[in-house]
Protein backbone atom coordinates (compact mmCIF):
# COMPACT_ATOMS: atom_id res chain seq x y z
CA UNK A 1 0.00 0.00 0.00
CA UNK A 2 2.82 2.37 0.85
CA UNK A 3 4.43 1.58 -2.51
CA UNK A 4 1.20 2.31 -4.30
CA UNK A 5 0.88 5.65 -2.57
CA UNK A 6 4.23 6.70 -3.98
CA UNK A 7 7.74 7.00 -2.72
CA UNK A 8 7.22 10.13 -0.65
CA UNK A 9 4.50 8.51 1.38
CA UNK A 10 6.67 5.50 2.07
CA UNK A 11 9.41 7.70 3.46
CA UNK A 12 6.99 9.50 5.76
CA UNK A 13 5.71 6.20 7.09
CA UNK A 14 9.23 4.99 7.75
CA UNK A 15 10.34 8.06 9.62
CA UNK A 16 7.16 7.97 11.66
CA UNK A 17 7.89 4.37 12.56
CA UNK A 18 11.46 5.29 13.41
CA UNK A 19 10.20 8.05 15.62
CA UNK A 20 7.85 5.67 17.40
CA UNK A 21 10.61 3.13 17.91
CA UNK A 22 12.88 5.81 19.31
CA UNK A 23 10.17 7.10 21.59
CA UNK A 24 9.60 3.60 22.96
CA UNK A 25 13.31 3.10 23.55
CA UNK A 26 13.37 6.39 25.40
CA UNK A 27 10.42 5.36 27.57
CA UNK A 28 12.16 2.08 28.32
CA UNK A 29 15.31 3.85 29.51
CA UNK A 30 13.25 6.32 31.51
CA UNK A 31 11.21 3.53 33.11
CA UNK A 32 14.42 1.89 34.27
CA UNK A 33 15.57 5.18 35.80
CA UNK A 34 12.13 5.73 37.32
CA UNK A 35 12.39 2.39 39.14
CA UNK A 36 15.79 3.28 40.53
CA UNK A 37 14.74 6.78 41.53
CA UNK A 38 11.37 5.58 42.83
CA UNK A 39 9.33 7.98 40.72
CA UNK A 40 6.24 5.78 40.88
CA UNK A 41 3.51 6.37 43.40
CA UNK A 42 0.04 4.99 44.01
CA UNK A 43 -3.38 6.56 43.83
CA UNK A 44 -6.15 4.83 45.74
CA UNK A 45 -9.68 4.47 44.40
CA UNK A 46 -12.20 3.68 47.13
CA UNK A 47 -14.35 0.56 46.81
CA UNK A 48 -17.74 0.63 48.52
CA UNK A 49 -20.35 -1.86 49.59
CA UNK A 50 -23.36 -1.06 47.40
CA UNK A 51 -25.72 -2.32 50.08
CA UNK A 52 -24.45 -0.40 53.08
CA UNK A 53 -22.45 2.29 51.25
CA UNK A 54 -19.54 1.57 53.56
CA UNK A 55 -15.96 1.86 52.45
CA UNK A 56 -14.51 -1.66 52.13
CA UNK A 57 -11.15 -0.97 50.56
CA UNK A 58 -9.15 0.65 47.80
CA UNK A 59 -7.73 -0.25 44.43
CA UNK A 60 -4.13 0.91 44.18
CA UNK A 61 -3.33 2.43 40.78
CA UNK A 62 0.17 3.34 39.71
CA UNK A 63 1.16 6.89 38.65
CA UNK A 64 4.50 8.16 37.39
CA UNK A 65 5.91 11.48 38.50
CA UNK A 66 8.08 11.99 35.42
CA UNK A 67 10.94 14.49 35.90
CA UNK A 68 10.17 16.27 32.59
CA UNK A 69 6.76 15.16 31.38
CA UNK A 70 5.02 15.62 34.71
CA UNK A 71 2.38 13.40 36.21
CA UNK A 72 1.65 10.38 33.99
CA UNK A 73 -1.29 7.96 33.95
CA UNK A 74 -0.72 4.23 33.25
CA UNK A 75 -1.92 4.61 29.64
CA UNK A 76 1.28 6.58 28.93
CA UNK A 77 3.66 3.80 29.96
CA UNK A 78 2.01 0.46 30.83
CA UNK A 79 2.16 -0.93 27.29
CA UNK A 80 5.90 -0.28 26.96
CA UNK A 81 6.39 -1.62 30.49
CA UNK A 82 4.55 -4.82 29.54
CA UNK A 83 6.49 -5.28 26.30
CA UNK A 84 9.89 -4.73 27.89
CA UNK A 85 9.13 -6.82 30.96
CA UNK A 86 9.73 -3.84 33.25
CA UNK A 87 6.13 -4.16 34.41
CA UNK A 88 7.25 -6.91 36.78
CA UNK A 89 9.49 -4.56 38.75
CA UNK A 90 6.78 -1.89 38.66
CA UNK A 91 4.23 -4.32 40.09
CA UNK A 92 6.53 -5.30 42.94
CA UNK A 93 7.24 -1.66 43.67
CA UNK A 94 3.47 -0.97 43.69
CA UNK A 95 2.90 -3.86 46.08
CA UNK A 96 5.66 -2.55 48.33
CA UNK A 97 4.18 0.95 48.41
CA UNK A 98 0.70 -0.46 49.09
CA UNK A 99 2.02 -2.54 52.00
CA UNK A 100 3.79 0.46 53.48
CA UNK A 101 0.59 2.47 53.12
CA UNK A 102 -1.50 -0.18 54.89
CA UNK A 103 1.07 -0.35 57.66
CA UNK A 104 0.88 3.43 58.02
CA UNK A 105 -2.93 3.34 58.10
CA UNK A 106 -2.82 0.66 60.76
CA UNK A 107 -0.70 2.91 62.95
CA UNK A 108 -2.15 6.33 62.27
CA UNK A 109 -5.80 5.90 61.34
CA UNK A 110 -6.13 2.73 63.42
CA UNK A 111 -8.18 0.88 60.84
CA UNK A 112 -10.43 -1.48 62.73
CA UNK A 113 -12.39 -3.08 59.95
CA UNK A 114 -11.18 -5.62 57.43
CA UNK A 115 -9.84 -3.10 54.94
CA UNK A 116 -8.45 -4.67 51.77
CA UNK A 117 -6.16 -3.00 49.24
CA UNK A 118 -6.25 -4.33 45.70
CA UNK A 119 -2.99 -4.30 43.74
CA UNK A 120 -2.84 -4.89 39.98
CA UNK A 121 -0.43 -7.50 38.68
CA UNK A 122 0.45 -8.12 35.06
CA UNK A 123 -0.66 -11.46 33.63
CA UNK A 124 2.90 -12.24 32.65
CA UNK A 125 3.93 -12.51 36.31
CA UNK A 126 2.11 -15.79 36.65
CA UNK A 127 4.36 -17.69 34.28
CA UNK A 128 7.20 -17.63 36.79
CA UNK A 129 7.44 -19.59 39.99
CA UNK A 130 9.56 -16.89 41.68
CA UNK A 131 6.58 -14.56 41.97
CA UNK A 132 5.23 -16.60 44.89
CA UNK A 133 8.28 -15.95 47.07
CA UNK A 134 8.67 -12.37 45.87
CA UNK A 135 5.14 -11.46 46.93
CA UNK A 136 5.53 -13.19 50.26
CA UNK A 137 8.77 -11.40 50.98
CA UNK A 138 7.12 -8.02 50.45
CA UNK A 139 4.20 -8.44 52.84
CA UNK A 140 6.33 -10.25 55.40
CA UNK A 141 8.77 -7.37 55.38
CA UNK A 142 5.89 -4.98 56.04
CA UNK A 143 4.75 -7.35 58.82
CA UNK A 144 1.28 -7.56 57.29
CA UNK A 145 -1.30 -10.24 57.31
CA UNK A 146 -1.67 -11.44 53.67
CA UNK A 147 -5.46 -11.07 54.05
CA UNK A 148 -5.22 -7.30 53.60
CA UNK A 149 -4.00 -7.64 50.01
CA UNK A 150 -6.00 -8.64 47.01
CA UNK A 151 -4.23 -9.20 43.72
CA UNK A 152 -6.08 -8.13 40.57
CA UNK A 153 -5.28 -10.04 37.42
CA UNK A 154 -6.97 -9.61 34.08
CA UNK A 155 -9.01 -12.43 32.70
CA UNK A 156 -6.26 -13.31 30.20
CA UNK A 157 -3.94 -14.50 32.96
CA UNK A 158 -6.43 -17.23 33.66
CA UNK A 159 -6.17 -18.40 30.08
CA UNK A 160 -2.52 -18.08 29.18
CA UNK A 161 -0.11 -20.80 30.19
CA UNK A 162 -3.04 -22.42 31.88
CA UNK A 163 -1.42 -25.01 34.09
CA UNK A 164 1.54 -22.91 35.23
CA UNK A 165 -0.58 -19.86 35.97
CA UNK A 166 -3.12 -21.94 37.83
CA UNK A 167 -0.47 -23.65 39.91
CA UNK A 168 1.18 -20.35 40.83
CA UNK A 169 -2.11 -18.64 41.66
CA UNK A 170 -3.03 -21.55 43.90
CA UNK A 171 0.18 -21.15 45.86
CA UNK A 172 -0.29 -17.40 46.28
CA UNK A 173 -3.86 -18.05 47.31
CA UNK A 174 -2.98 -20.72 49.82
CA UNK A 175 -0.57 -18.25 51.41
CA UNK A 176 -3.68 -16.20 52.24
CA UNK A 177 -3.68 -13.59 49.44
CA UNK A 178 -7.07 -12.99 47.85
CA UNK A 179 -7.45 -12.91 44.08
CA UNK A 180 -9.69 -10.80 41.86
CA UNK A 181 -10.37 -11.38 38.16
CA UNK A 182 -10.11 -7.88 36.64
CA UNK A 183 -11.83 -6.48 33.53
CA UNK A 184 -14.06 -9.51 33.30
CA UNK A 185 -15.80 -9.85 29.96
CA UNK A 186 -13.16 -8.16 27.83
CA UNK A 187 -10.92 -11.16 27.19
CA UNK A 188 -11.70 -14.33 25.38
CA UNK A 189 -14.34 -16.04 27.35
CA UNK A 190 -12.84 -18.09 30.12
CA UNK A 191 -16.23 -19.19 31.38
CA UNK A 192 -15.38 -22.84 31.17
CA UNK A 193 -12.19 -22.41 33.18
CA UNK A 194 -13.15 -19.71 35.60
CA UNK A 195 -14.38 -22.16 38.21
CA UNK A 196 -11.07 -24.01 38.31
CA UNK A 197 -9.10 -20.95 39.37
CA UNK A 198 -8.76 -19.72 42.93
CA UNK A 199 -10.40 -16.28 42.98
CA UNK A 200 -12.90 -14.80 45.42
CA UNK A 201 -13.80 -11.74 43.43
CA UNK A 202 -14.87 -10.97 39.91
CA UNK A 203 -14.68 -7.41 38.65
CA UNK A 204 -17.03 -6.51 35.83
CA UNK A 205 -15.39 -4.34 33.19
CA UNK A 206 -16.46 -0.72 32.87
CA UNK A 207 -17.64 -1.24 29.29
CA UNK A 208 -20.53 -3.37 30.58
CA UNK A 209 -21.43 -0.98 33.38
CA UNK A 210 -21.71 1.73 30.72
CA UNK A 211 -24.40 -0.29 28.98
CA UNK A 212 -26.64 -0.12 32.05
CA UNK A 213 -27.76 3.42 31.28
CA UNK A 214 -30.01 2.79 28.35
CA UNK A 215 -29.58 -0.67 26.90
CA UNK A 216 -31.83 -3.56 27.88
CA UNK A 217 -29.15 -5.96 26.61
CA UNK A 218 -26.74 -4.31 29.04
CA UNK A 219 -28.88 -5.35 31.98
CA UNK A 220 -29.09 -8.90 30.63
CA UNK A 221 -25.31 -9.15 30.21
CA UNK A 222 -24.46 -7.70 33.63
CA UNK A 223 -27.12 -9.81 35.31
CA UNK A 224 -25.69 -12.94 33.68
CA UNK A 225 -22.15 -12.12 34.81
CA UNK A 226 -23.36 -11.49 38.38
CA UNK A 227 -25.26 -14.80 38.48
CA UNK A 228 -22.28 -16.66 37.08
CA UNK A 229 -19.99 -15.18 39.73
CA UNK A 230 -22.43 -15.92 42.53
CA UNK A 231 -22.95 -19.48 41.34
CA UNK A 232 -19.20 -19.94 41.50
CA UNK A 233 -19.16 -18.50 45.01
CA UNK A 234 -17.49 -15.24 44.03
CA UNK A 235 -18.20 -11.64 45.10
CA UNK A 236 -18.77 -9.06 42.42
CA UNK A 237 -17.26 -5.59 42.06
CA UNK A 238 -18.58 -3.25 39.37
CA UNK A 239 -15.90 -0.90 38.04
CA UNK A 240 -16.42 2.51 36.45
CA UNK A 241 -19.79 3.38 37.98
CA UNK A 242 -20.50 6.91 36.77
CA UNK A 243 -24.26 7.44 37.08
CA UNK A 244 -27.00 7.02 39.69
CA UNK A 245 -28.91 4.89 37.22
CA UNK A 246 -26.03 2.43 36.88
CA UNK A 247 -25.76 2.26 40.66
CA UNK A 248 -29.48 1.59 41.13
CA UNK A 249 -29.46 -1.17 38.50
CA UNK A 250 -26.40 -2.80 40.06
CA UNK A 251 -28.05 -2.79 43.48
CA UNK A 252 -31.17 -4.38 41.99
CA UNK A 253 -29.05 -7.05 40.34
CA UNK A 254 -27.39 -7.91 43.65
CA UNK A 255 -23.90 -6.64 42.90
CA UNK A 256 -22.06 -6.38 46.23
CA UNK A 257 -19.35 -3.81 45.62
CA UNK A 258 -18.52 -0.93 43.34
CA UNK A 259 -16.05 1.77 42.46
CA UNK A 260 -16.24 4.63 40.01
CA UNK A 261 -16.27 8.37 39.52
CA UNK A 262 -19.82 8.54 40.96
CA UNK A 263 -18.27 7.74 44.33
CA UNK A 264 -14.72 8.94 43.90
CA UNK A 265 -11.78 9.30 41.54
CA UNK A 266 -8.55 7.55 42.51
CA UNK A 267 -7.11 9.62 45.37
CA UNK A 268 -3.58 10.57 46.37
CA UNK A 269 -2.39 8.99 49.61
CA UNK A 270 -3.20 12.05 51.72
CA UNK A 271 -6.83 12.24 50.55
CA UNK A 272 -7.32 8.49 50.86
CA UNK A 273 -6.08 8.77 54.44
CA UNK A 274 -8.55 11.59 55.15
CA UNK A 275 -11.39 9.53 53.73
CA UNK A 276 -10.37 6.57 55.83
CA UNK A 277 -10.20 8.70 58.96
CA UNK A 278 -13.81 9.79 58.37
CA UNK A 279 -14.97 6.18 58.16
CA UNK A 280 -13.01 4.79 61.02
CA UNK A 281 -13.64 5.70 64.63
CA UNK A 282 -10.24 6.27 66.14
CA UNK A 283 -9.55 4.04 69.08
CA UNK A 284 -6.75 4.76 71.47
P1 LIG B 1 -7.92 -1.26 35.90
O1 LIG B 1 -7.19 -2.16 36.83
O2 LIG B 1 -9.10 -1.83 35.20
O3 LIG B 1 -8.26 0.04 36.74
C1 LIG B 1 -9.43 0.79 36.57
C2 LIG B 1 -9.17 2.02 35.73
O4 LIG B 1 -10.41 2.69 35.51
C3 LIG B 1 -8.28 3.05 36.41
O5 LIG B 1 -7.55 3.71 35.37
C4 LIG B 1 -9.28 4.01 37.02
O6 LIG B 1 -8.78 5.30 37.24
C5 LIG B 1 -10.34 4.02 35.97
N1 LIG B 1 -11.67 4.36 36.49
C6 LIG B 1 -12.16 4.15 37.73
N2 LIG B 1 -13.43 4.56 37.84
C7 LIG B 1 -13.78 5.07 36.65
C8 LIG B 1 -14.98 5.68 36.12
O7 LIG B 1 -16.00 5.82 36.79
N3 LIG B 1 -14.95 6.07 34.81
C9 LIG B 1 -13.84 5.94 34.04
N4 LIG B 1 -13.92 6.37 32.79
N5 LIG B 1 -12.71 5.37 34.49
C10 LIG B 1 -12.67 4.94 35.78
P2 LIG B 1 -5.98 3.98 35.49
O8 LIG B 1 -5.62 4.36 36.89
O9 LIG B 1 -5.61 4.90 34.37
O10 LIG B 1 -5.36 2.56 35.23
C11 LIG B 1 -5.48 1.93 33.99
C12 LIG B 1 -4.99 0.52 34.01
O11 LIG B 1 -3.59 0.44 34.25
C13 LIG B 1 -5.61 -0.31 35.14
O12 LIG B 1 -6.91 -0.72 34.75
C14 LIG B 1 -4.63 -1.47 35.23
O13 LIG B 1 -4.89 -2.44 34.25
C15 LIG B 1 -3.32 -0.78 34.89
N6 LIG B 1 -2.54 -0.56 36.13
C16 LIG B 1 -2.63 0.44 37.04
N7 LIG B 1 -1.74 0.28 38.03
C17 LIG B 1 -1.07 -0.89 37.76
C18 LIG B 1 0.00 -1.61 38.42
O14 LIG B 1 0.53 -1.24 39.49
N8 LIG B 1 0.42 -2.77 37.81
C19 LIG B 1 -0.13 -3.21 36.63
N9 LIG B 1 0.33 -4.36 36.09
N10 LIG B 1 -1.13 -2.56 36.00
C20 LIG B 1 -1.59 -1.42 36.55
MG1 LIG C 1 -7.63 -3.30 38.35
MG1 LIG D 1 -10.39 -3.21 35.85
MG1 LIG E 1 -10.79 -1.81 33.07
From TrEMBL:
<feature type="domain" description="EAL">
    <location>
        <begin position="24"/>
        <end position="280"/>
    </location>
</feature>
<protein>
    <submittedName>
        <fullName>EAL domain-containing protein</fullName>
    </submittedName>
</protein>
Amino acid sequence: QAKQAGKGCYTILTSQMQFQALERMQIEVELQEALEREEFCLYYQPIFSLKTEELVGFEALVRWQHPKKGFLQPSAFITVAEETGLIEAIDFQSLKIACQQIEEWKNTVKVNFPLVVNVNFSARQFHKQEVVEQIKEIYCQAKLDPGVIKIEITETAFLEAISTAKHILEQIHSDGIQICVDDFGTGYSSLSRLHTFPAETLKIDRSFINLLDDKVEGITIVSTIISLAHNLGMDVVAEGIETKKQLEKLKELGCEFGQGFLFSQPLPSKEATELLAKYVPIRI
